[in-house]
Each structure stands twice: as structure tokens, then as C-alpha cells.
């Protein structure tokens, strides 16, 4: 039996993948899947019940789980439950009751869960700040309301202050959100609006802390001399700041990897039941931003001998992403080379070893950590030296080593920037080529020629025909995998299938696939599935946006034409049934026929704008009695509300509201003249639910009431 027939498929539900924290969390699952021949589908949605439309539009991907194709589900609950509590999150997870589900980051009753012990790490950090540094004036920048992790950290912060009888000033507590910009804004509020002084800022995440540090430094504060700052998460960015960020470490990657490990064990053998609750500890990582010299101070005090290998190995073994055996091997070689170089007073011995190790593609520790470890190695080694002639040589060799690593990091940063710009340019070039194509079919002929240049080996692109009627009925308009473009696959499909059945390609390799929604404004367009590559994950969002923007006009045109075809059939049948068809029905038919005979939208920008405004005017004249809004009509012609409004006024001489009112009143005049109807009936027929309001508008425009108008024209109301 082919290997793929027995391969397990797991779905990972997460929010937008643009932050280091989410990337590290996701990597635990994807690394495990890669090591155990498991297909991983990453459904990148938004947050549940988000007030932001673009986030709500993403959440359709959470419904695309076919129990016939997916074996188990991992839900990053703490990420997608920003606006809901445990009860609603539990109901969300129960929606996958036919599949094994594991919640990560939030304990949910009746749902197997893996959580972090936020309180221990926060407590130990606060005790350090109070007892070691003597801080008494604390500011707290908390996370979003309803977030369990943020709440646990905040309440432990309060408990420790009360335990030490330190007053809690509500004006020094800011409820914010996770993100660098929120940290900057919180500092601005504390200093400008609340005008509060503080010794130390305790942030609920590293991103918040980094934002706070940036804002403080921009205002002339010296860190940590004027204000100490601490974070929570221990992301790599905290190591690259000056001063380095004191934080609380979470085993983020191992934390999520354990979720994949437990789920896989259960899928392989159902008797391995998922444990109800698994809890991972957290602990402080003491660096310079709290006022300490370095976290190396703590390491130097640990037992373990005086060898330079010890000072390197100890923190490296705590890295989530590194293999302990390989790290120990590297540490022994680096420390041995350093010792040998000092003894022989030849720096090249040490530099050559650093070059060899950092050139290894498996070297995952990062150059910023290596610099700090070199510093600690020197301190420990120097303390153990008895020969007075060696320390000077050791310092010189160490300086050469640090300079090499710093230069290497600068080179790598430049290389990363160049690679990112190159990917961005290629995505823009793809978008430009798609924009030049006149229809969806031609666009889908263009895309496969660009995918290899972007390093994308797999891509399935689906569009919806009538999302308001059936959000899962879709068309597969592009299927591409390592074997090339698939042309004999299905057309009409259920979106929950995600990828074509294996019979459309031979023995596919294990894959990690991203499932992303395609939408433009408030309009759902479809979704795209592509393989995870070496990219920065922001590139995926950029690619998703550009593809959405490019296909939107053509998807919309196809929908309009399909709708018009259906409306034409309905209208013609209705005309046959009604011998006394009135002027309004004939007008609608004429407009429908105009749409049907309409050719492609003009390519000239001004002509295209005029075309879209005319379509909007036609739509208003047909749908004048509906609840029309400027945003809704602008969306139908794929224009932003502001731009549409300015073009609309240029074309009509009126703003949207004035024009809609004039159309409705003209329709009302026709009805009042020709039909013996009540004002309340006419009011409803022209789009006003309140007859009194209709009368008020009518009188304002016509100068007389509807009843007076009818009387003057010989009818009675």
C-alpha cells in the first residue's frame, strides 16, 4: 500500500501568522509533523467574534474541516479567543465533535487542553524586581480583555504587590493588546494623559515591552537607569535589544510540539487517550532591562565546574529549537578550540572553528545568543586561568571571535533583507501579470509560471459562485503540485475537501499546507491552499492580498453575469404571466438586458471608473427600495467607499444620500400619480419603513406633503 494511504492528517487552527510568537508556536506542530510523516493543514483565520471585518472574513477557514480527510484538530485557543471566554471557546471546539480536538493555551472543560503556568513565572519575576532591585512604583501594561494568559499574569502581578504591601495604583495599569504599537501607546497614555511616574513597567508580552522600551527611549529615558522594563514570552527579539529584555520564558515550541505528540499518539492508538489537562511551567530570564548586568550572572553562580564548555552548554540546552546532543558537540568543539587558541596564542584556531560551526545548516542557535555565550565563556575561563600570560591572549582572541560573529550577523541580516525584497518584487511582478490578464482563466494560466520562482510547489485556488447561498460550493480554478499543473481534476467541489483527492496525483509526499481565505473588502472571493516554504510568513499575507485584489474584478463580473442570467429568466417568465406588466418591471428588464450585453470592462482608467459609476447608478435605480448604503454599493463595484463617493459626486453632482433620495422620491411621484395607494404603502415600496419619515422627506423636497400632492393631481389617498 502506498505510504500516503496510511499518513495521518491533522489540522491546526490559528490566527494570522505574522508574529514571532505565533510562528514559534506553530513551528512546534509543523516540526513534529515533518518528523513523523504527518500532513499538517494550517488554517489561518482571525479571531472569533472580532469587531474587525477583515478578521471575520478570515474565519470561514475554520469551517473547512472534512472529517473524511482530517484525522484530528489542534486549536490555538488563546490566539483565536481574544474576544470570547472559555464557554464560547468550548462550544467552538465542540463543533468538531466527530474529531479528536486538543486545545492549546486555554483550559476548556471537557476538551483535552495544554496550558502554560503563567503565575509561577510572573511571581518569580515580581519577587526578583521587588527584593533584588527594590522597585515600588510599578506600571502594568496588560493584554486584551478576555485573554486568559493576560488575565493570569495581571492577577499574579496584583497578588505579589499586595503580598509585599505595595499599593496598587489603578492609574498605572493599562489594559492594552499584544503588539509593539500597543506598548508605545500605553507609555504615551501613562506619561501624557495620566502624567504618572513609575520605576518599572511590567508588560504582559515581549512585544508590548519592546514597544514600551522604544517609546521611552524616544522620549529621552535611559533604560534601565530611569525606568526598568520586563516582558513575557522570551522571543528572540528580546535578545537583540539594548539593554537585553528581562522576561519570562515559555517553552513555546516544545509546548505546541507536545500537543502534536499527544494527538498523534492518540491517532495511532486510540487507547492512548488524550489527557484532560497538561501544564507547562514558566520561569524568569534575567537580563539587563530590569537593572541586572546579565543573565550570565546567574549562570556563573550555578555549579558545574570551571570549563568554558559549561558556560556555553548550559543555556544552549534550554533552547527549544536545538537538539541537545548536537549542541553539546558544538559546545565541546568551540570551547576546545578557544582553549587551544589561547594556549598557542593563535586566534585563527578559534576563528576557523566558529566559521565551520556557523556554516552548518543545522546551526539553529542564532548569532545573537552566540555573542552572549562567548562573553560568558570568557568570564568563566578567565576566572580559572592561573597563568598571567594567558588572559591578555584570551581577551584578544575573544574580541576577534565576537567581531566575526557580529559581522556574520550583519551579513545574514543583509541577506535576509535582500531575500525579502526579492520575494516582494516577485509577488508584485506576479500581480502585475495577473492584472494584465482579461479574465479568470487567463489569470490562472499566468499564476503557475510564477509559482516556481516563488518557491511554491503546491497551490490550489478556489472561488465561490454564490457565497451568500452556499459558502462551501466552490470551483477549483487552479490545481498545481510538484508534478505540475493538474488539468483533469474536479470543477465543482466542496470547499471542506481542501485539496483534490489523491487519485489526481501519484503518491504525494508529506506536506505542510496553509489554508488562507481570499476576500476583497467585505466580499468573500474564495480560498487558496499552498505549501509552507522558507518565507517570512508576512510574505504569505502579502501574496494572499495581491491575489485577492487581482481576481476580485473578474470573480465579481462572473457572479454578476450569472446572477443576471438567472434574473433574466425569472423576469421573462414573470412577464409572460403578467399581461399588465407595468413600467417598473420593463425598466428592470431593460437594465438586465444592458448588463447581459455588456462586454468586458474598459481598460482605460477613466472609462473604467465611468463604467463602474454607471453600473452603480443602474443598480440604485433597480434596488432603490432596498436598504442601500454607500459602503454596500461601493463594494459591489469593487471601489473603496471614499473613492467611490468622490467619483459618484463628480458624475451626478450629488452625494450618494441625495441621489438615492431623489430616485426614491421620483418613484413615489409616479406611484402617487398613477395608483390609488395609501401613503404608508408607497412609503414601503420606495424604501422608507417609517411613513412619517417618508412624509417629512417628501415635503422637504417637493414643498408639499404626499396627501397634498395627490389632491392636487386629482387622486385620493
Highlighted features:
717 residues; 12% strand; twelve-stranded mixed β-sheet; 18 strands; 25 helices; alpha/beta; four-stranded parallel β-sheet
Give a brief rundown of this model.
This protein has about 725 residues and is an alpha/beta fold. The protein is built from 25 helices and 18 strands.
Q: What is the element layout, followed by pairings?
A:
Elements: E1 9-14, H1 20-35, E2 39-44, H2 53-58, E3 72-76, H3 77-80, H4 86-94, E4 101-104, E5 113-116, H5 118-132, E6 138-142, H6 148-163, E7 173-175, H7 180-193, E8 200-203, H8 206-218, E9 228-230, E10 247-249, H9 252-268, E11 277-280, E12 283-285, H10 296-301, H11 308-316, H12 324-344, H13 347-359, H14 367-384, H15 390-436, H16 440-450, E13 459-464, E14 473-481, E15 484-485, E16 492-494, E17 512-520, E18 523-531, H17 537-577, H18 583-596, H19 605-622, H20 630-636, H21 641-652, H22 656-674, H23 679-685, H24 691-702, H25 706-712
Parallel strand pairs: 1-2, 1-3, 2-17, 3-4, 4-5, 5-11, 6-7, 6-8, 8-9
Antiparallel strand pairs: 10-12, 13-14, 13-18, 14-15, 14-16, 17-18
Helix pairs in contact: 1-9, 5-6, 7-8, 11-12, 11-14, 12-13, 12-15, 13-15, 14-15, 15-16, 15-17, 17-18
Can you tell me about this structure?
This protein is α/β, with parallel strands linked by helices and 717 residues long. Helices cover 52% and strands 12% of the residues. It is built from 25 helices and 18 strands. The strands form three sheets. Strands 1, 2, 3, 4, 5, 11, 13, 14, 15, 16, 17 and 18 form a twelve-stranded mixed sheet that branches. A four-stranded parallel sheet has the order 7-6-8-9, sandwiched between helices. Helix 11 (308-316) runs antiparallel to helix 14 and helix 15 packs antiparallel against helix 16 (440-450).
Amino acid at each position: 500500500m502506498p505510504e500516503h494511504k496510511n499518513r495521518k492528517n491533522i489540522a491546526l487552527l490559528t490566527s494570522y501568522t505574522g508574529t514571532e510568537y505565533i510562528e514559534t508556536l506553530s513551528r512546534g506542530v509543523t516540526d513534529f509533523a515533518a518528523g513523523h510523516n504527518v500532513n499538517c493543514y494550517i488554517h489561518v483565520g482571525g479571531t472569533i467574534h472580532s469587531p474587525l471585518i477583515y478578521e471575520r472574513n478570515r474565519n470561514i477557514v475554520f469551517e473547512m474541516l472534512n472529517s473524511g480527510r482530517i484525522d484530528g484538530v489542534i486549536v490555538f485557543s488563546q490566539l483565536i479567543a481574544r474576544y470570547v471566554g472559555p464557554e464560547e471557546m468550548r462550544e467552538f471546539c465542540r463543533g468538531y465533535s466527530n474529531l479528536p480536538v486538543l486545545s492549546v493555551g486555554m483550559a476548556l472543560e471537557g476538551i483535552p487542553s495544554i496550558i502554560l503556568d503563567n503565575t509561577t513565572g510572573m511571581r518569580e519575576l515580581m519577587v526578583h524586581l521587588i527584593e533584588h532591585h527594590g522597585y515600588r512604583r510599578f506600571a502594568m501594561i496588560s493584554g486584551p480583555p478576555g485573554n486568559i494568559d493576560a488575565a493570569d499574569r495581571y492577577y499574579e502581578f496584583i497578588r505579589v504587590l499586595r503580598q509585599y504591601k505595595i499599593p496598587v495604583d489603578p492609574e498605572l495599569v493599562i489594559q492594552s493588546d499584544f503588539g509593539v504599537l500597543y506598548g508605545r501607546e500605553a507609555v504615551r497614555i501613562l506619561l501624557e494623559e495620566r502624567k504618572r511616574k513609575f520605576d518599572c513597567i511590567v508588560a504582559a508580552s515581549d512585544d508590548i515591552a519592546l514597544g514600551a522600551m522604544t517609546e521611552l527611549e524616544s522620549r529621552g529615558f535611559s533604560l534601565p537607569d530611569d525606568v526598568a522594563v520586563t516582558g513575557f514570552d522570551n522571543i528572540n527579539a528580546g535578545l537583540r535589544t539594548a539593554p537585553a529584555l528581562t522576561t519570562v520564558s515559555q517553552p513555546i515550541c516544545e509546548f505546541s510540539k507536545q500537543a502534536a505528540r499527544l494527538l498523534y499518539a492518540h491517532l495511532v492508538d486510540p487507547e492512548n487517550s488524550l489527557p484532560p489537562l497538561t501544564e507547562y511551567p514558566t520561569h524568569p530570564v534575567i537580563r539587563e532591562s530590569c537593572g541586572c548586568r546579565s543573565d550570565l550572572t546567574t549562570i556563573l553562580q550555578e555549579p558545574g565546574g570551571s570549563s568554558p564548555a559549561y558556560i556555553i552548554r548550559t543555556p544552549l540546552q534550554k533552547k527549544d529549537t536545538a537538539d541537545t546532543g548536537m549542541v553539546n558537540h558544538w559546545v565541546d568543539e568551540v570551547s576546545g578550540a578557544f582553549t587551544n587558541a589561547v594556549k598557542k596564542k593563535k586566534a585563527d584556531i578559534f576563528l576557523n572553528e566558529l566559521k565551520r560551526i556557523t556554516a552548518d545548516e543545522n546551526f539553529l542557535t542564532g548569532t545573537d545568543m552566540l555573542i552572549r555565550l562567548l562573553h560568558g565563556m570568557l568570564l568563566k575561563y578567565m576566572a580559572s586561568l592561573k597563568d598571567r600570560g594567558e588572559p591578555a591572549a584570551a581577551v584578544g582572541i575573544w574580541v576577534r571571535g565576537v567581531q566575526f560573529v557580529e559581522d556574520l550577523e550583519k551579513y545574514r541580516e543583509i541577506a535576509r533583507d535582500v531575500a525579502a525584497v526579492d520575494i516582494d518584487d516577485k509577488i508584485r511582478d506576479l500581480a502585475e501579470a495577473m492584472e494584465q490578464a482579461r479574465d479568470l482563466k487567463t489569470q490562472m494560466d499566468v499564476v503557475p509560471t510564477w509559482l516556481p520562482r516563488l518557491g511554491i510547489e503546491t497551490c490550489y485556488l478556489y472561488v465561490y459562485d454564490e457565497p451568500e447561498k452556499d459558502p462551501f460550493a466552490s470551483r477549483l480554478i487552479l490545481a498545481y503540485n510538484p508534478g505540475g499543473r493538474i488539468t483533469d481534476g474536479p470543477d465543482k467541489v466542496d470547499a471542506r475537501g481542501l485539496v483534490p483527492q489523491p487519485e489526481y496525483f501519484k503518491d504525494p509526499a508529506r506536506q505542510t499546507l496553509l489554508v488562507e481565505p481570499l476576500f476583497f473588502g467585505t466580499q468573500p472571493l474564495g480560498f487558496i491552499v499552498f505549501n509552507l516554504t522558507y518565507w517570512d510568513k508576512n510574505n504569505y499575507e502579502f501574496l494572499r492580498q495581491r491575489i485577492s485584489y487581482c481576481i476580485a474584478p473578474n470573480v465579481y463580473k462572473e457572479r454578476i453575469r450569472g446572477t443576471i442570467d438567472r434574473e433574466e429568466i425569472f423576469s421573462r417568465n414573470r412577464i409572460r404571466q403578467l399581461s399588465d406588466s407595468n413600467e417598473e418591471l420593463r425598466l428592470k428588464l431593460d437594465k438586465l438586458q444592458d448588463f447581459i450585453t455588456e462586454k468586458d470592462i474598459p481598460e482605460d482608467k477613466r472609462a473604467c471608473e465611468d463604467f463602474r459609476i454607471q453600473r452603480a447608478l443602474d443598480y440604485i435605480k433597480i434596488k432603490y427600495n432596498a436598504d442601500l448604503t454607500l459602503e454596500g454599493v461601493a463594494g459591489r463595484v469593487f471601489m473603496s467607499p471614499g473613492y467611490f463617493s468622490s467619483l459618484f459626486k463628480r458624475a451626478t453632482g450629488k452625494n450618494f444620500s441625495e441621489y438615492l433620495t431623489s430616485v426614491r422620491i421620483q418613484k413615489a411621484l409616479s406611484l402617487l400619480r398613477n395608483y390609488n395607494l395609501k401613503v404608508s404603502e408607497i412609503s414601503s415600496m420606495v424604501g422608507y419603513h417609517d411613513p412619517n419619515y417618508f412624509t417629512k422627506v417628501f415635503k422637504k423636497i417637493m414643498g408639499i406633503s404626499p396627501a397634498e400632492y395627490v389632491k392636487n393631481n386629482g387622486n385620493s389617498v
